[in-house]
Design brief:
There is one protein chain. The model has no long low-confidence stretch (mean pLDDT 90). A hairpin with a 3-residue loop joins β5 and β6. With 282 residues, the chain is α/β, with parallel strands linked by helices. The chain contains twelve helices and seven strands. The two termini are 39 Å apart. The protein folds into two domains: 81 residues, 434 Repressor (Amino-terminal Domain); 191 residues, Endonuclease, Chain A, CATH 3.30.870. Strands 1-7-6-5-2-3-4 form a seven-stranded mixed sheet. The longest helix has 19 residues. The relative contact order is 0.12.
């Protein structure tokens, strides 16, 4: 769980505790009023458990403040919107998440992205995407039934690459060219596909070389959609950040990494070198 998510949950719990103390009831008596275990009241108030919407409704009723339900529900929505459990998202398969990506891409004119250890989905071949989805499903122990639908959705998302009003500025750590997230023949074909992206009118592809001097290390991948949304994926959570502070911070990270990247012919050479290495070992 991210520290920001936990901080938000603690803040929500503190607000619930404040409302409870205004009634003059201690935790034990308040739990009896709700018909709950005392431990549940304690966990909610100390941010150790995320309340359900029904929990919040009952809480607002028990404190005699039905008007405060909107506020509490809004705080919960903020947590759910900004920090999304990846396992929960994928529990019903991969297609739905890819469809979300299609919608976001359709609404975006300028997409800036950083990827560290895999080829970005917007550039993936069907075979590479299939391997990534299968590995992700196995790791998270979620269904793989809809992988082919997810692959097709990802390919539809790539149609935006050929729309002249859009711009894709993507930075890729050189290590992603060598990380075998798919069998070697698939990886070799994927690198050929990536090399064909260099020089496209709508694409600026930068490779951050191993030997580059870095103002900021590429610690994790992120995607900036215009200036309205940043999506960051951690091991367990996908964060959707739309506050100005987060957007400015990730824009600065992107700019600093862009200063360390190489483009055009130099990027083409690095991809070609990786392709040769993968083919030699296949």
């Amino acid at each position: 769980m991210t520290s920001d998510y936990q901080s938000g949950r603690v803040a929500l719990g503190a607000r619930m505790r404040e409302l409870r103390t205004e009634t003059g009831l201690n935790g034990k008596d308040f739990a009896e009023r709700l018909g709950w275990q005392r431990s549940k009241v304690s966990r909610l108030e100390h941010g150790k458990q995320t309340p359900s919407r029904e929990d919040l409704r009952e809480w607002a009723t028990a404190v005699g403040r039905p008007d405060v339900l909107t506020e509490l529900a809004g705080r919960l929505t903020g947590l759910e919107t900004r920090y999304r459990s990846l396992r929960k998202q994928y529990s019903n398969g991969h297609r739905a998440r890819q469809e979300q990506g299609v919608v976001e891409s359709e609404q975006t004119k300028l997409l800036r992205a950083v990827e560290v250890i895999r080829i970005p989905g917007i550039f993936q071949t069907p075979e590479y995407a299939r391997a990534v989805f299968a590995a992700n499903a196995a790791f998270r122990d979620v269904p793989i039934d809809d992988i082919e639908d997810a692959v097709r959705a990802r390919m539809r998302r790539q149609q935006a690459l050929y729309e002249p009003e859009r711009s894709f500025r993507v930075l890729l750590w050189e290590g992603a060219l060598y990380a075998l997230n798919a069998p070697r023949p698939v990886m070799a074909a994927q690198l050929d596909r990536l090399r064909s992206m260099v020089g496209m009118d709508t694409v600026q592809l930068g490779i951050i070389p191993f030997a580059a001097e870095l103002r900021r290390s590429p610690s994790h991948g992120f995607w900036i959609y215009d200036r309205r949304l940043v999506i960051v994926e951690t091991l367990s959570t996908e964060m959707w950040l739309d506050d100005e502070e987060s957007i400015v911070l990730y824009e600065r990270a992107w700019d600093w990494l862009a200063d360390s990247a190489v483009y055009d012919a130099a990027a083409h050479r690095l991809i070609g070198r990786a392709t040769a290495a993968v083919q030699k070992l296949s």
